[in-house]
Amino acid sequence: MRVTWKPDGDVWHLGFRLDPEDGLDGTVTDGQAVRLATNSCRIQLPRRVADVHPDLLALAAWTVVAPWTTRRITFDRPVSPDLAAAVERGWGIEVGPVGGGPRAGGRLAISYSGGADSAAVAAILPDSPLVHFQRVPHPRVPNRWTHYRSDVLAKLAARTGRELTITRSDLEFTLAEPRPGYPEHHAVTAGAALMADELDLGGLAFGYELGSRWLGGGRYLLRYTPDNPMWSGDGRWGRLFQAAGLPIVLPVGGVSEAMTMRLALTSELRPYVRWCLRGDGGPCGECGKCLYKELIHAAVERRPLKTAITAARPVAAKWQKPPPYGGQEMIEYGCARVPGIETTPFGVAAGHLGATVESTSWLDHCYRPALEEIPDPWRKQVTDFMAEEVGFMTEDEERRVRDWGQA
Ligand SMILES: [Zn+2]
Prior knowledge:
The mean pLDDT is 95. This protein has 15 helices and 13 strands. The protein is an alpha/beta fold. It has helices at 54-65, 81-91, 116-124, 150-159, 190-195, 210-214, 236-243, 257-265, 288-301, 328-337, 347-353, 357-360, 368-372, 376-389, 395-402, and strands spanning 2-8, 11-17, 25-27, 33-36, 40-44, 72-79, 94-98, 107-111, 130-135, 164-169, 175-177, 201-205, 248-249. It has two domains: 2-249, no CATH class; 257-361, no CATH class. 32% of the residues lie in helices and 16% in strands. It is globular and about 60 Å long. Bound molecules: zinc ion. Zinc ion binds at residues 276, 278, 283-284, 286-287, 289-290. Zinc ion binds next to α9.
């Protein structure tokens, strides 16, 4: 793989060429198979920046091209020995050219989507600037995904009144299958990486919570994953971001989505929280994400589910089958707490899971080992917040995390 960055005013163009051994079919760190659509993308920054450290350019490029790189990567500027070593050790990929020194910065920025998880992070770190990624169409790929209202999310982020940097990019359209999206989940930070020197960033905080970090949530393995390659400090991505002077920080890595929901909705950011990518006036109420988050929302408020979605609808189909489910800990939590769950699209799942308030109360507290992963300058602030607002898991509750999916 060969990559080239070309700045043009406030826009940075990334071009890449496959080496003979590289193919159009690749694999993301989480195991998802992806197919390449096109070999260029651009990132528009809020302003022209004078210079970007080669390690930041390499990091941003790697979040896009990693799935399709088989044996070696050639950058257009020499990267530091540390960055090269992180790629070589993490992926077994040969890196060149190598030269020059590492970079460093001071401030912690939040990779802010506007969903409940990143809003909770913003509530925990009230002085940290937000960096928002906004999808824009690609000039060479037809946009069949116009229902994705990235403009609405960017406007909501602006209304928070926080220091905000919006970066716009079409990088998701480099990916043809299964659909446009981040080639690697970390590509959401490509714009933040290019702005990191300009903003003096020394760390990036994400909204990945207990399920994503420790329970192999989403479409990953449903088991305890202390060595999660995506988000753990000494995982391949953790070491790479560290080498670029932007360590990954997970302020809500020790708490469940129920807690991030509660923290977000009891914060001053509440009016701007939006997890649905579709609606313009408000969340669409029709998509799978809306249904899943409504279960958590209703559980946190201990009220019946408010949804027009029935069990017969395609978005509810997965809940009519037996487990395992993605985000299963939250399905258990919701089913145990929402009154009248039997008559909702989660009724069948509730019957299979048999969860109770007692069996899911560990999800109300913070898992301490997650705090130990937070780099020094920011650990105390997050720990103090968790002690005050959430409380810590007992030994028995921590064991529930470690035993997740092992039975
Ligand atoms: Zn929706």
